Every structure is written in C-alpha cells, then in structure tokens.
Amino acid sequence: MSKPVEFGSFYKLLQSVKEGKEEKIKELEWMLAEYEHAKEANSAYDELGQIFCHHGIMELYEYTGLENVRIISGLNKNVWDYLELRTNFSITNYMVKSMLDHSQKHDLDKKMAEKWKISIEDVNDNISALARYVAEGIIEIIDK
Predict the structure, then answer these.
(1) Residue range of the domain that includes 130
(2) Is residue 1 part of a domain?
(3) Rounded Cα distance, 35 and 51, in Å
(4) Which pLDDT band, with edges at 50, 70 and 90, does 128 fall under?
(5) Is the pLDDT of residue 138 over 60?
(6) Percent of residues, the chain, with pLDDT higher than 90
(7) Domain contains 2
C-alpha cells in the first residue's frame, strides 16, 4: 500500500460501545453510515477500509444474529465455537471472505483504481491484506 491507513477513531468508538457507553451507540451508527459510502475518504485504501469497517460490522451482526456490540463481546467460547461450526468459518475468515466477495461483486478494485488513479494491480495486491487488517481489528476489540 502506498500510504498507511488506520481506523483508530473507528476502533476507539467501537471499544466505547463495547464498554457500554450508551451515548456512543448513535455515534457508531452515524460513523458506520458514513463509512458505508466512504465519501470523506482521502485515498483508495482509506475508502476501501471504511467500506470494509462498515461491512465487517454488518457481517458481525449477521454472523452472530445480534446487533448489540456489548452483548456480542460477552459471548462465551462455546457460542463462538457453535457459530464457527454452523457457518464453517471463524468470524475473522467469515468477515474477510464477505468483504472480498462484496468488493468483487461491486468491482471495487476497478472503481478505486479509476477514481484514485492507481493501478488495479496495486489494489488487487493489497485488498486481501486490508480486509484482514480491518477484520482482525474489529475482532480484537470484540474479543478483549
């Protein structure tokens, strides 16, 4: 990747919601809505990362059947084991696969390359690592 990206504000907000700071729930919802279309992004990887942050949280909700970060973070190992058995994917692999499927379905590699004037090969060389980076960041917060 040409310029490092980080989503510290997203992860910090997710951590606050996980800790039960009710006033931060609406803020997280707003951020996720903004990230869905990533209109404020400043690079291809920032844009992809924002989209992946949104998509990752939506897939976390889908995977668990819950839409409450605090409850999800309190799930015990047996529940996670059951979910993995049911889906045939760990939560991390589920998120990454879903992000990459979403990217492919919406031709995000081509769109990012064209919009940000970078090679499609550069995007394709980095998209999997970016999806894993975002998914692992979400899981690290949820699992702490």
Answers:
(1) 8-143
(2) no
(3) 5
(4) very high
(5) yes
(6) 94
(7) no
> Is the whole model's pTM more than 0.90, yes or no?
yes
SS (H, E, C) 8-54: HHHHHHHHHHHCCCCHHHHHHHHHHHHHHHCCCCCCHHHHHHHHHHH
The sign of the CA dihedral 74, 77, 83, 88 is positive
Give the tens place of pLDDT for each residue, 38-84. Answer: 999 999 999 999 999 999 999 999 999 999 999 999 999 999 999 99
Q: Is residue 60 part of a domain?
A: yes
Flag whether 99 is in a domain: yes
Using only C-alpha atoms, the chain has a radius of gyration, in whole angstroms, of 15
How far is Cα 16 from Cα 32, in angstroms, rounded to an integer?
15
Q: Name the residue among 95, 85, 4 with its Cα closest to residue 44.
A: 4
| DSSP three-state, residue 85 | helix
Number of domains observed in the structure of the chain: 1
Half-sphere exposure of 47 (CA within 13 A, CB side): 17
Residues in the chain: 144
**Distance from C-alpha of 134 to C-alpha of 51, rounded to nearest angstrom:** 10
CA dihedral of 16, 29, 99, 36, whole degrees rounded to 10:
-140
